[in-house]
């Protein structure tokens, strides 16, 4: 892995609100070695003149399902795990080509996929995983139709995003097992869902005792719990039980947002997921009941952004698109920009994402010692966030772990 010296560009530091001129950045051994306002002496490094382009940290998506290869969750579960893994590899390659160099998979991906990226078998982003999401019987990750009396639905399959587990002792064991298998955090389903077959949006899932038990197991392992939640009541409940990461939050209200902020929580809105489902969900098999649930959360999404921003609740970038709908991934930037300033959106996809991945100082920044995850962007994302949309069309170069995944500069 040869050294690379970036010169002649503008540096995007997510902690600032404007680009900075006159910096040079030296990369070697997969890490950023030096960032300087004065010329860096590195005779053996490959010199890249950015010609005024923007150099910024790689993007972080904190809510993806890389093993979701089709919108139909039951069909995704039933396909062979080997097929799911190969399809997931292609999805990971596409994600990286959009400029996302770190992804927090919010249930489904396993340690084998992490290793495939680390060993270079797949040219994808760094993966932070939680393993299978924990769901109660009839909860959001329970894919069984109402007339299916099986105790579970092929939970061992890679394409099954969750595992059904009930009772305090059993959820403790399940959390321990996922952590043993390489999970970096624990994901639970604590509210009704859109794409699941039997749970209305308003349903509260898991008892407080079960949630607290899972939180305790995560804390014992030095990590945290992430919860699928939409309604204000569900959000308040999991915050009171010690959950840190709040996924979706479409129906949150100001008082709960303030309580979550005070508790040190981070929210992960995923508004593009509902846009994608509204556009094409029916085409891929979602019925009228699911369509009604989609509209409930979709219509409140933009308001939730304003509520969380006003409360000072940090937000990380997320997408949560299923299968064929992942083509809408970067549309999330444009949706967020209807409410949030560009600088805050950039922080959500860099600094805040790094906090949630427990990788502060290593990703989401351009600083000595950080991973060399870098994007070269045509334009100024602070002035026009669409520079980061368009599936990487305005990114002539993408570097992950010190290697170019894309380089159109030479």
Automatic annotation (TrEMBL):
Q: What is an example of a GO molecular function annotated in this UniProt entry? A: hydrolase activity, acting on carbon-nitrogen (but not peptide) bonds
The Amidohydrolase-related domain extends over 54-392
> Which superkingdom?
Bacteria
> Pfam families given for it?
Amidohydro_1 (PF01979)
Q: Which InterPro entries match?
A: Amidohydro-rel (IPR006680), Metal-dep_hydrolase_composite (IPR011059), Metal_Hydrolase (IPR032466), Metallo-dep_Hydrolase (IPR051781), OTAase-like (IPR057744)
Q: What is this protein called?
A: Imidazolonepropionase
Q: Which organism is it from?
A: Kaistia soli DSM 19436
């Amino acid at each position: 892995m040869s050294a690379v010296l970036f010169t002649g560009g503008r540096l995007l530091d997510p902690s600032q609100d404007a680009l900075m001129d006159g910096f040079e950045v030296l990369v070697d051994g997969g890490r950023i070695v030096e960032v300087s306002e004065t010329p860096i002496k590195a005779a053996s490094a490959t010199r890249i003149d950015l010609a005024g382009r923007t150099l910024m940290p790689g993007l972080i998506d904190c809510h993806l399902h890389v093993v979701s290869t089709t919108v139909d969750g039951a069909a995704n579960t039933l396909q062979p795990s080997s097929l799911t893994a190969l399809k997931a590899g292609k999805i990971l390659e596409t994600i990286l080509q959009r400029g996302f160099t770190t992804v927090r998979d919010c249930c489904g991906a396993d340690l084998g996929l992490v290793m495939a990226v680390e060993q270079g078998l797949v040219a994808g982003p760094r993966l932070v995983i939680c393993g299978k999401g924990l769901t109660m019987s009839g909860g959001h990750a329970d894919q069984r139709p109402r007339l299916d009396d099986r105790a579970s639905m092929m939970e061992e399959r890679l394409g099954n995003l969750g595992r059904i587990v009930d009772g305090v002792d059993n959820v403790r064991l399940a959390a321990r097992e996922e952590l043993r298998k390489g999970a970096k955090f624990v994901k639970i389903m604590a509210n009704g869902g859109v794409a699941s077959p039997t749970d209305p949006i308003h349903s509260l899932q898991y008892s407080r005792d079960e949630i607290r038990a899972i939180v305790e197991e995560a804390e014992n392992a030095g990590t945290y719990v992430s919860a699928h939640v939409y309604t204000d009541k569900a959000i308040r409940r999991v915050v009171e039980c010690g959950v840190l990461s709040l996924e979706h939050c479409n129906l949150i209200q100001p008082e709960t947002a303030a309580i979550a902020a005070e508790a040190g929580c981070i929210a992960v809105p995923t508004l593009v997921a509902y846009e994608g489902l509204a556009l094409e969900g029916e085409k891929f098999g979602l019925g009228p009941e699911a369509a009604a649930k989609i509209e409930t959360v979709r219509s409140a999404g933009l308001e939730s952004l304003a509520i969380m921003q006003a409360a000072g609740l940090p937000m990380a970038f997320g997408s949560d698109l299923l299968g064929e709908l992942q083509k809408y991934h970067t549309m999330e930037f444009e949706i967020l920009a209807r409410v949030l300033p560009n600088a805050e959106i950039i922080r959500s996809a860099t600094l805040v994402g790094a906090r949630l991945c427990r990788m502060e100082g290593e990703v989401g920044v351009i600083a000595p010692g950080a991973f060399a995850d870098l994007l070269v962007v045509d334009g100024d994302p602070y002035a026009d966030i669409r520079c980061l949309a368009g599936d990487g069309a305005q990114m002539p170069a993408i570097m992950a772990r010190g290697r170019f995944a894309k380089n159109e500069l030479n």
